[in-house]
Design brief:
Two copies of one chain form a homodimer.
Chain A lengths: L4 E9 L8 H23 L4 H13 L20 E7 L4 E8 L5 H11 L4 E3 H10 L7 H16 L4 H21 L5 E6 L5 E7 L20 E3 L5 E6 L1 H6 L2 H12 L3 H15 L4 E6 L5 E5 L3 E8 L4 E6 L3
Parallel strand pairs in A: 3-4
Antiparallel strand pairs in A: 1-5, 1-11, 2-3, 2-6, 5-6, 7-8, 8-9, 9-10, 11-12
Chain lengths: ~325, ~325
């Protein structure tokens, strides 16, 4: 039995301890732990890496704290356009969706595109049509609006703050974070299963106030998401445009395949050298087929966690903690 | 002064000499030569590789024989959804557009996204909105419908064929090709200018009868299009899905950067080994900063041409001719 491992991220950027209340910190860490546990449960039951990364990303998409699925930020027109991708390292199968609305779990749609269409990438209204054909769960705007409504509501009802209790403050604080920082808001997971297979998945609500049908790196195979049993599974989070230009996730794979670097070495080169040269702020999580994991970023913080069958279980936000 | 070079392609696939009339062959070769000449004129006037690839791709987009711009194939709903990308090897700047309608020259839109937006990739209705803001030329459905109308018209008017003369036959034949073969229909250009800078551009009308907002490899930086002065500029054409999964264009660059392969060697590995393993049919054109060019494909044919300042000027369709 191989070492099996799951790692998750919930976005990177200017995440500072001094901006974070103990309640918020706890809530983020709980969300990351829940995602780790959802993925780990699949792996420990001899499930596939592909199923583990999907379970972890679904957990993060359903958590309003993170900019993906339910917690997706607002585009310029008030809509939530979401992107996601998934890739199976065993056969390089991949599925991706860009600029889709209404789908509760875009990562499930990405997987349906991978397994039930002849295509890799679908977009916009056409992607939603495919989701409906496949019977995927849809949600109305209310579902995606909740966080924002809390904020609006609190602005109007400011004097009632103490009456609202810690839950509402938490919701409000998370919204402020979501709106202010979420240029880099993304969720993702990578996993190695007991059979030495690996997979990666990424999902995002994109940039706050985004317009013109902008597509970031998350759904681009090779940029935000990549998996290949021979090298690594990678999920990125950061300022999407430089990540696309640097073909970030696949670059890690090439440095391993063609130069013989380890996973950690390759990730360091890409995040601290290649990306920095083109002002690419953010980070990534990765695993290899032996169950090694690494989490590397060049921003102030990255919501992240890793759990493996040797008993490792770490959830972190800032540099080193 | 460096050797300067332009190469173009007009799609790859099951292109057989026995299916092609002399008139058709001549028309395709003329179209490719016009595109080469448009790019070469820019280069010989000390223009930038970026301007040369745009001029060449605009020429191909305006030519109804090729599946891009005016000659784009019909999606399932009768619309023309087009994709394009452009990349500048001097600074890794890139622009891409997916699933856009009505824009006469999607490659110009890709370039406007690169230079006049903070984004790399825009899609759908939002991309069209951006095109309008930038004053790009739009066309009505009539403009994109012409070829199809010729075919419909000839089916109805079959008995009048001889009266129609060679132009109409030509149009009809090209349409039949476009509908039958154009799973792999794409146009593209790569160039090295007198200053040793390189660039790549790709444009496509996608797959006939495509649906669900499918996005192929052409607008994916790293898959269908890539340029980096340190390695190569690449434009691909083929069955888009495997090209995305193989991160085809960037793989050539990595084989050159990390393994020291030449442009031609790297292209051979990717087209004949990497792509074949996942049933990826098609090909690519490439240049390096020294003005070397290569054109490699694993399908029966690829519409292609190359011209350089040493007097080389070749336009080819089949293996070796």
């Amino acid at each position: 039995m191989s070492l099996f491992t799951i790692a998750v991220h919930g976005g990177a950027g200017t995440i500072r301890k001094e901006d974070m209340s103990p309640d918020m910190e706890l809530a983020y860490k709980q969300g990351l732990q829940e995602a780790l546990d959802a993925g780990y449960a699949v792996l420990s039951a001899k499930g596939a890496a592909l199923d583990a990364v999907m379970a972890a990303v679904v957990s993060l998409e359903d958590n309003i704290l993170f900019n993906a699925g339910r917690g997706s930020v607002f585009g310029k027109d008030g809509k939530h356009e979401m992107d996601a991708a998934i890739m199976d390292g065993t056969n390089l199968a991949a599925g991706a969706v860009a600029a889709v609305t209404s789908v509760r779990n875009p990562v499930k749609l990405a997987r349906a595109i991978m397994t039930e269409s002849p295509h890799v990438m679908l977009s916009g209204a056409g992607a939603l049509e495919f989701a409906k054909l496949r019977g995927l769960q849809l949600e109305d705007e209310q579902y995606f609006y909740s966080a924002f409504r809390y904020e609006q509501w609190q602005q109007i009802q400011g004097t009632d703050q103490t009456a609202l209790d810690h839950d509402v403050k938490l919701a409000d604080a998370s919204v402020s974070k979501a709106v202010g920082e979420k240029k880099f808001g993304t969720v993702g997971a990578v996993a190695t299963d007991q059979f030495g297979n690996i997979a990666a998945a990424t999902s995002t609500g994109g940039m706050t106030n985004k317009q013109w049908g902008r597509i970031g790196d998350s759904p681009i195979i090779g940029a935000g998401t990549y998996a290949n049993n021979r090298t690594c599974a990678i999920s990125c989070t950061g300022h999407g445009e430089p990540f696309i230009r640097a073909v970030t996730a696949y670059d890690v794979s090439c440095l391993m395949e063609y130069k013989g670097l380890t996973l950690e070495q390759a990730m360091q080169v890409v995040v601290h050298d290649k990306l920095m040269k083109i002002d690419g702020e953010g980070g990534m999580i990765g695993v290899d087929a032996n169950g090694h994991a690494a989490m590397v970023f060049n921003s102030e913080g990255m919501y992240r966690g890793v759990r493996n069958s040797n008993g490792l279980n770490n959830v972190l936000i800032y540099q080193g903690s």
